[in-house]
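May I ask for a sample protein chain and its fold as tokens?
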Amino acid sequence: MWASAVIGYAAGGLTHLLFDLPNPMGVPIFTPVHRLSLRWWHSGDHDAALSLACALIAAGLVWMKYRGPG
């Protein structure tokens, strides 16, 4: 149970960073002054699509894990 919580926490942190990367504000890499940004879109423009993509990927992984033999 603890492993599931740690994996969920780590996955949430990674998706947060990935969702912030395309925004103009970017992600602070080593210091708060220097940020990495792809500048693809403004914050909030594609949140629903990204959330849906993450949910579909997670559902696909669960389906692959528990689909049973064969």
Residues 47-66 form the longest helix (20 residues). The chain has a mean pLDDT of 86.
